[in-house]
Amino acid sequence: GENVEQHPSTLSVQEGDSAVIKCTYSDSASNYFPWYKQELGKRPQLIIDIRSNVGEKKDQRIAVTLNKTAKHFSLHITETQPEDSAVYFCAAYSGGSNYKLTFGKGTLLTVNP
Amino acid sequence: DAMVIQNPRYQVTQFGKPVTLSCSQTLNHNVMYWYQQKSSQAPKLLFHYYDKDFNNEADTPDNFQSRRPNTSFCFLDIRSPGLGDAAMYLCATSRELGGVDTQYFGPGTRLTVL
């Protein structure tokens, strides 16, 4: 089955700096890679996603890049703000008959004012 | 305009006392999922329904069962909760399987087992 590794597990940045979270996946058939933000005690919310036919996607201060050859994808947050503080999960959706998202273990991002 | 609703938000039960968690959706999605999330961990898929077809994950304990009486509702039944079952239980929906569509999560039910 799919295995998703996520790094770092914790990340602390100063307000205004950039933050980068990296994930690798094992199943070359995986074709969909969402990123979820989960604030303490709240539901995971989709913030951006990318499909395997695209190398990069951007939405305001958030961007995701995908390298299919190396099987890794990254989340980039620019001009971080304190409200960006949360746990971020990457995930990979396997192809074939294994219809499920496999999540990384999460990154706790803290943005210090 | 809540799309995925879970009730109750907090549930306290006693060791071994059956409990049922509820999920409903207004999206008319075909797929409904149940995840277990323990503190500081990623959500772990327990099972999903595609319409009325039930798909159990291989490592989901027999203690966990699910029912989907109609498109809108899905229930998680824990027959004999143990202390290790204390967790946040998240319901999610998607229009289709196969990575075509996003999964939308409900707010979760936090289960405490005394």
Write up what this structure looks like.
The complex is a heterodimer of chains A (113) and B (114). Chain A is mostly beta strands and 113 residues long. In chain A, 0% of the residues lie in helices and 56% in strands. The radius of gyration of chain A is 14 Å and the shape is globular. In chain B, strands 2, 4, 5, 6, 9, 10 and 11 form a 7-stranded mixed beta sheet that branches. A 4-stranded antiparallel beta sheet of chain B has the order 1-3-8-7, with no helix packed on it. Chain B is globular. The model of chain B has no long low-confidence stretch (mean pLDDT 92). The chains are: A mainly beta (113), B mainly beta (114). Chains A and B meet through strand 4 and strand 5 of A and strand 5 and strand 10 of B.
Query: What is the CA–CA distance across the termini of chain B?
Result: 34 Å
SSE string of chain A: EEEEEEEEEEE
Q: How much helix is in the residues of chain A?
A: under 10%
Largest interface: A-B, 24 and 22 residues
Low-pLDDT sequence parts of chain B: none
Mean pLDDT, all residues of chain A: 92
**What is the count of β-strands of chain A?**
11
Oligomer: heterodimer
The computed structural class of chain B is: mainly beta
Rg of chain B to the nearest angstrom?
Answer: 13 Å
Largest sheet of chain A: 6 strands, mixed
